[in-house]
Amino acid sequence: MTRIVLASGLSLSILLNYPRPYPDFPAINPVIRIMTRNTKQALVRIVSLSFLLVCTAVVVAEKPKKRSTQRVIAATKLFDGKSFAGWEGNMDWFRIEDKAVVAGSLEKKIPNNEFLCTKKTYADFELRLEAKLSSEGKNAGIQFRSKRIPNHHEVIGFQCDMGGTSDRLIWGALYDESRRRTFLAQGDQDKLAKVYKENDWNQIRIRAQGPRIQIWINGLQTVDYTEKEADIATSGVIALQIHSGAPAEASYRNIMLTEL
Questions:
Q1: Does the N terminus or the C terminus of the chain have fewer Cβ atoms within 10 A?
Q2: pLDDT of 15
Q3: Residue 104 in contact with residue 219, Cβ under 8 Å?
Q4: Sequence-separated (6 or more) residues with CB below 8 Å from residue 190
């Protein structure tokens, strides 16, 4: 638009100052001859200013583009790799090694289920971490939307299970700890066997939003469950478990949570 204004002003300036008659426009020749130089310059300015005002009005009339209102929420590191700040539990069964939480023991039996719990509660979130089981360990897990049972070592709530039974893997299964005491959903065994890494770190992703719960193990979705009971808690602590029984260790690291 600015180019049009400049071109229009330039064309008018040439027209008014051209020294010879205009054969194509005989009617304007007498007018141009009697105009003074100052009058011609003033006319050029008036015409150019008129075009500029028109251009400005067009620009102002344009609707501004809408900016995205979506809020980008950064993931929070729940475990700093060097302390238990923000966590609570029976520290006889939890320690830190190589920036990982290590639960249990390889030297003695574990008398009770033990849980290292966050002090803060969470409702809708996406949790990502890495976990592994060592030695004879066949059972551990990550609790969420859970709470401690008063004066007891147990917690109650959802659990992303880790481990296996005599006939199947339960990694990535959804278990209802100390409440309905049953598996609510499990992954496809054949697919799970292909992605699971025994005695090695496995990537776990848990997404809880409203009544819907989804779980992935090493990128494989094992659970897509929708809770139908209205009285089931939709918020609670995150907890890392080591199951009672034979000597075993469960390790957890790179624990990141994004609230939704």
A1: N
A2: 44
A3: no
A4: none
